[in-house]
């Protein structure tokens, strides 16, 4: 079996200096990054599948972007206010996230599961709305021919 794992393909914040980790700061599920748009991604997946190479996408299901001063702009032009847990490109609002708390004790199960890792806004997957948006995103990738996923912590 041949396959390639690709970086997250959904819209992320544009951070000064364009560091690698900005791709792990999602603000919407639009398929536009500095690597290309949805049409280009779908074409790549199709061509890879035609020659027996499967595509595995790194996906971020636990969080959205971390704190950002003011309005963050994404790779598809979407604006968000991560510090207010406002991601209108999905749309997610503050009610779709766990309460803000910091991990101070890595042995405390509650903190590890419910608090923010380095300020990343933790999605409340107990919410049917949140789960529906995540499933919609994954289903769309499958429709484009993606073989599987790597779920980033």
UniProtKB/TrEMBL annotation:
It comes from Drosophila takahashii. Keywords: Carbohydrate metabolism, Chloride, Disulfide bond, Glycosidase, Hydrolase, Signal. This is alpha-amylase. Its cofactor is Ca(2+); chloride. It comes from the Eukaryota. Pfam families: Alpha-amylase (PF00128). Gene3D superfamilies: Glycosidases (3.20.20.80). The gene is Dtak\Amy. It catalyses: Endohydrolysis of (1->4)-alpha-D-glucosidic linkages in polysaccharides containing three or more (1->4)-alpha-linked D-glucose units.
